[in-house]
Design a protein that fits this description.
The chain is of the alpha+beta class and about 180 residues long. The protein has a domain of about 120 residues: Gcn5-related N-acetyltransferase (GNAT) (Aminopeptidase, 3-Layer(aba) Sandwich). Helices cover about 35% and strands about 25% of the residues. It contains 5 helices and 7 strands. Helix 4 links the parallel strand 4 and strand 5. The longest helix has 17 residues. The relative contact order is 0.18.
């Protein structure tokens, strides 16, 4: 079930982000590695948590996946793209892998955005994590471009058309992990 996270979930978001770094390293991706200042990472999460809604997928009273619904990042999108009707997601984490919880959350947020009359679901994710890009493509997203922004390892821009997209077959969440920017 789709829920809105509240202050009682803040620490969980931090814990899951920490676990994500360890899990991704074990999978051999460079995502979240390379001398990241963890104090700054957590300060950025707190800033997002204070400013934007975080939503989660709840199973049996516990949060199994989570993401933030934020403003589009001006560093990556054109002025025209920034004005388009969209829901922009970030900080997409799962607590348990391989159980389709991330897929369920993603589709619930897409359905809600469509009901709100949004045209696009957009995101920016880690540029070198091609398995993550493939995950989103299986969920009906298309790769728009990869932006090279100094100081950022993310920049793979993906979007899903919520008006005309009809993904005939959805692949379940596999073991690539759903860790966006």
């Amino acid at each position: 079930m789709l829920i809105t996270l509240d202050e009682s979930h803040r620490q969980l978001v931090h814990q899951v982000r920490d676990h994500a770094g360890e899990w991704l390293a074990a999978k051999g991706t460079d995502q979240y590695r390379g001398g990241l200042d963890m104090d700054q990472v957590h300060a950025n999460i707190d800033a997002d948590f204070d400013r934007f809604p975080f939503v989660g997928w709840e199973i049996d009273g516990r949060v199994a996946a989570m993401m933030a619904i934020i403003d589009p990042e001006e560093d990556f999108w054109t002025p025209e793209e920034l004005t388009e009707s969209q829901t922009y997601i970030s900080r997409f984490f799962v607590v348990e892998h391989g159980k389709d919880y991330g897929s369920a959350l993603l589709e619930a947020v897409i359905d809600r955005a469509r009901q709100e009359g949004k045209r696009w679901m957009r995101l920016n994710c880690w540029s070198t994590n091609t398995r993550l890009h493939e995950y989103y493509v299986r969920h009906g997203f298309t790769h728009v471009r990869t932006a090279d922004v100094p100081g950022r390892m993310s920049g793979a821009l993906l979007q899903r058309d919520l008006v005309s997209s009809d993904v005939a077959e959805r692949a379940g969440e596999d073991e690539v992990g759903v860790y966006s920017a």
